[in-house]
Amino acid sequence: MARLKDKYFSEVVPELMKEFGYRNVMEVPRVTKVTLNMGVGDAKTNAKLLDDAVEELALIAGQRPKVTRARKSIAGFKLREGMAIGCAVTLRGDRMYEMIDRLVSIALPRIRDFRGIDPHQFDGRGNFAMGVREQTIFPEIDYDSVEQFRGLNIVIATTAKTDEEGRALLSRLGMPFQTN
Questions:
Q1: What's the alpha-carbon Rg for the chain, to the nearest Å?
Q2: Starting at the edge strand that comes first in sequence, how are the strands of the sheet with 152-158 ordered?
Q3: What is the spatial distance between Cα 14 and Cα 41, in angstroms, rounded to a whole number?
Q4: What is the DSSP letter of 11?
Q5: Which of 39, 112, 162, 177 has the fewest Cβ atoms nearer than 10 Å?
Q6: What is the pLDDT of residues 46-91, one digit of tens each?
Q7: How far apart are alpha carbons 57 and 63 in whole angstroms?
């Protein structure tokens, strides 16, 4: 069992039940999935950039990402419907917990001038989204082999009904939120 999953069931669930007054264990919010998304705008002219992005995201996530394609044509961006423009991967189960654990304990502390994550990045329903400016904060990526720095979006979907419940869940899982 993943280290963070064990912590969730042994420590986080009892704390959240006490704090929010849940009467049933099934009411306690939990993480359902983690989605990693990497957009590669230059892939329309250079297909090798997309291959590199897929390779790097596979190293970070531990599973092969799917290539995302443009839904519609946009002449201003010289984009045609169906062109490959990025890659995404959805993690569930133990891989999801491992990803959150690596993000919180290894990757986020490696960000330059890191002062914590903005606690207002919730969507109103307890789901959390954040952006990372470069993929090199993950130790799986070899810094010397990176040709281009790319950002990626990380979305953590939870069963929390409110942002307050989602924030309490993620902060107990170790997410370093800023304190005002």
A1: 18
A2: 66-69, 84-91, 31-39, 152-158, 128-132
A3: 45
A4: I
A5: 112
A6: 778 888 888 888 988 989 999 988 888 888 877 788 887 889 999 9
A7: 8
